[in-house]
Each structure stands twice: as C-alpha cells, then as structure tokens.
Amino acid sequence: MSPNPSLSKSRYLSGDQCHLRLWYDSYERDLAPPPDASLQTVFDTGHEVGRLACERHPGGHNIAHDHRHIRGALEETRQVIEAGTAPALFEPAFRHQGVLVRVDILERLSGGGWRLGEVKSTTRLKDVNIPDVAVQLWVLRGVGLDVREAEVVTLNRDYVYDGIRLDLDALFKRHPVMDEVEALQEIVSFRVGEMLAMLAQPAAPDISPGDHCFTPYDCPYYGHCTRDFVWPDHGIGELPSLHPNRRAQLEEARIEEIRDIPAEFSLTSLQRIVCRAVRGKRAIVHGDISAALARLTPPVHYLDFETFAPAIPRFAGTSPYDSVPFLFSVHTEHAGASLEHTDYLHEQDDDPRPHIADRLIDAVGTKGSICTYSHYERTVLSGLAATVPERADELAAVSARLFDLLPVVRNTVYHPEFHGSFSIKNVLPVLVPGMDYDDLDIPDGRTASAQYMQALGSTEQQERQQTFDDLRTYCERDTLAMVRLRQALDAL
Ligand code: SF4
Which superfamily does CATH assign the domain made up of 283-492 to? Predict the structure, then answer.
C-alpha cells in the first residue's frame, strides 16, 4: 500500500479488468511469471511497429527520457510543446491527478489543436483499444491540451510488400475513435477515483477468479489466484464442442465433473463417448481404425512444417502476419519398416519459400501417402504453390497425397487422459507411453516461431546455431511422434 497511489495507462487498463490485478501490478508484481520467449517477441514486435509508425511523421521529436526518468520526460514534453516547432511528439509524457500516460504519437494539427495516436501491432481495431485511448485523452485534457482528434493506428492486413521498399502510408491503417473515447470521459474520471481509493487501502481487495480473468486479456496472476483450487479430475470443460447453453445448464446444476452428468442430459455422440471413457477409466475405441488407415499407400511419409508470421512483411508478395514456412521435417517409412529422416531449415535472412519448396519436393518424392496431424500443412502447401508458381504443379501433387491423422484419432479412439483435446501433445503420451515433448528446449510451435525470429536477428553465432539445432530437434520430434502414433493406432 502507498500513501500516494498512482496509475499508469497500463495499470488503468489492469484495473478496468480487475482491481486485484491492479493491486498486484502496483505492489506484488513478482506474483506474475516472467515473460517467456513468445511474450518477448510480442514486445519486440510492438517496438518495431511503433518505430515504423513514427517514421510517417518526419521532423517529429522523440522524447528521449525513458520510463526510469519520468520527471525528465514530463519536462522535455513541456518544453517541446512550448517551443511549438515539432510537428509531432513520440512518447510524450503527461500526468494528471495521479495518472501518468505516454502517448505513442501526438500530432500537431495544421488548424490548431492535437491528434492523439495509439499504435497497435494488430491488424484491426478492438473494443479494448477504446478505454486505452480514453484514459490518455482524459489525462491530456486534464493538463489543458487541446486534443481535437484521436485515432488507433493498426497494421493493414491488405497491404502487400513489393520486396523493395515499405510503403508506410499503405502499411498502416488509421481508425478515428474520437467519438467513442469522448463518450467514455466521465466513466474514466469515475474509475480513476475508484482505483486510486482502492490502492490507498491497507490490504488487497477480495476478488475471486472468474470469467473476467480472461477478458479482455488473460490475467498473468491466474496461477497465483487459483493456487489453492482443487481442480476437477475430468471437468465438464473436457467435453468436446460443449455448447455454451449446455455448459450453463450444467453449471447451474453445480455439476463440475463429467462423471456427475446425469444419464438423461442431452449430449452429442462424441461427448457421450467421452463420458463413458471417463466413467470407465479406460480408452474406448469407437470407430474402425483399420478401415481409416487402409487408405495409406507405401512408402508412408510424415510431414510437419514450422512457420513464422512477421508483423512487418519481409518478403515480396507478403502482407502483415502472413505465415512463412522456414523448416520442415519428413520421416519416411519404407517397406520392412525401415525409417528415414530428412529436414530443411532455412538459416539465411532471405525468403525461405523457394528453398522449402525445392527441398520438400525432393524429400517426399512422387510416391506414397504423406501423413500430417492437422490440415495446416495443406494450407502451407497452397501458399507455397502461389509463391513458387514454377513448382505449383508438383506442390499440388504433394498436397493431393496428404493424409490427416487427426480426424482418424478423433473419429475412432478416446482416452480419459486426452483431457478433451486431440492435439498431438495430449494424444501422444497416452497412446505412445514414454514419448512426449517434455525434454525439449522448444516445446511448441509458438515458441519455435519466436525463437527462429530471435535467432535470425542475433549476431551470436553459437547461440544462433544452438537455436537452429533445437528447432530441428523439435520438428523431428513432431514427425517421429506421428510415426509412433500411427503404429500405436495400428496396434489398437
Ligand atoms: S486472476 Fe482474476 S481475480 Fe486474480 S487478479 Fe487476475 S483477474 Fe483478478
């Protein structure tokens, strides 16, 4: 507790979600886990997007004092505004009634007054952006600034990079939000008062976790707030595709466990199978696995891609957040059960797609089924065909040989330890005991993409090579997992 509590823009937004979250942000931040590689990539992306958005305002003044030198930032902002020469300010600082904000872009309007700009690295305006800008407007008005316009600046998903020069005007999309943020001014004023009063209390507010913990953001203190929870063994959340109305009915009847669902309660056939498996504590084979796998023709290949999706397009013909494959792994099972592995990781900064296309066509040849575990590989292949038209026919032929193992699992077998998910990460350790991803430094696709982008930007050769090795190991595990999974399905 502080005798003089204060707020920042991000803390105001935390308090808008939950007062306890704001309390923790203010006084017990260590209760949140440190940012992982994926979150760090989100921060890095935000900085890169913010820097480019500022380049649209030549002659703008960047406030040099950072968050550790707030007094300096406030004073520098005051001086630049008074000087009246800079057409725009980047990261200007303002404080009003205990609320400090730093504005992404404050633009001087030719007819007088200012435009407040909030830069987001997303591709669309979101509801949550409105209170974000509203609290900034409240502070700026509070210190007497004549703000006449407000906007959220996002990336433009329709922009296509020509591979030569980024067209910054086309890369960004401006969303005017003045009316919406004006309408929130009284509410902001009221909530700021509530939050400051709460922060001046001697103890944290008593708030229980609930749906608000995930809206509009996943709260980083969820692990802490639920540390004493006794979670159900197999909660109703494990029922696949449970309709919200059905879920509400069960919650109303205080039914948390699948095993307690009454027999007459209406469920889909798959949900009924899940109930039977949970009650019987055993796997249920409910479809014809042999018939499903009979369509496979040898030699059977197993394919997995890893992709990354840069916010700022790097390669000709791509738009913000287009997925670009940078790595694939292929295991091939020959007659007699001998297994062969090949992969390709693009280690240079240039466009990986032509290299991936060439190497993949060689790796899978022209014969045999190609197993995947999702339809994502099909999407990647059609993207590759559009990018490398000279190999489009061969890529289409590869695509025609794809065989998705995921629906085979979903339509034929359920084990209580799947916990309602048919993701390979859940299914693998159950159907192939002893095989999982726990020993890997890169445990999932999101981390793989984040680590790849960081490695590309790194000048540390050893670190870079280590990441590339880890990426290959992860992708190889994905395809080996499919081999073992298919063998386990055969055995079932
Ligand atoms: S986990 Fe939920 S209850 Fe706890 S601080 Fe976050 S939003 Fe509030």
Answer: Ribonuclease H-like superfamily/Ribonuclease H (3.30.420.10)
